Amino acid sequence: MNSTQLECFMQVAENLNFARAAEALHITQPSVTHQIHTLEAELNVKLFHRTTRSVSLTQAGLSFFADAKNILSLMKISKMRLHDDSTDKLSFFAMGLHSKMELSFLPDIIKEMKRQVPLLHPIIKMVPFHALANLLTDETIDVMFEFKNEKTDKLRLNYVELTKAPIACVLQKDHSLAGQPSVTPAELKDLSIVLCQPPVPVFSDISAFQQKEASNFSPANSYFSENIDEAYTLVKAGLGFSLLPDLMPSRDPELAYIPYDPSNEVSYGVYYKGKKKDPLLKLFIELTKNTFLQ
């Protein structure tokens, strides 16, 4: 994935017209079409509905719009860091996230980093797609939070485990099961389930576990979401329960987390590419570890 692909996507998405996008970018229309095709092939999703008369975004295209904007913003910041001499003394540190739930434990970490490194300029970017890992390999970001998975491991990045998160049944706080010490499949069989099935398998292990458990539920009693934030929203709306890793520092106070399968744990941590001896990276990892030990 490169900036040309993303700029073409943004222009077509904003204009809903390939000719106007080409005019805005000062390139030919076939070039725009080629960039969109290669981007769709890389993401393995269709971003636009195209007919001879109209162009419209698919659901995947709508979801990717904010991600593309974030990625382009990161690339611009990265270029600024390389070419602007006035930024030499500033300590930029870019953190990549997949969901809003991860934002909950970052303020205290950033606050302490800023106290120890006054010239710290933190950058937070949330990109649900697997493109986040590409940003890390390109060193556009310094670290990313993620559940350990084979696809990311193949990129030969470094990984620090923060916790082993057990699978919990996530329910509304006032649900009749919310006060129980644990819950069994038999107790959930008459409820509806909310599944987290992202278009790009970042959470492949979690999705596979959910799919296995969901085999006992009818389509009418199954709701689908593309990320954990959406799953939380559907649970809060009372549509059902979800089976998700229980990350203690990022628990939503409006929800109840009931142990479901303590033997099934998911590794959650930080991927990074640089050397752990880097002072800023070392400080970040140390503070983040302490957050998960509390």
UniProtKB/TrEMBL annotation:
Q: Where is the HTH lysR-type domain positioned along the sequence?
A: 1-58
Q: Which domain of life is it from?
A: Bacteria
Gene Ontology cellular-component annotations: protein-DNA complex
One Pfam match, by short name? LysR_substrate
Q: Any keyword Transcription? A: yes
- Which keywords are on file for this protein? DNA-binding, Transcription, Transcription regulation
Q: Could you tell me one molecular function GO term of this UniProt entry? A: DNA-binding transcription factor activity
CDD domains found in the cross-reference section: PBP2_LTTR_substrate (cd05466)
Family the UniProt entry places it in: Belongs to the LysR transcriptional regulatory family.
Please identify the protein, giving its name as recorded. Hca operon transcriptional activator
Q: Give the source species.
A: Eubacterium limosum
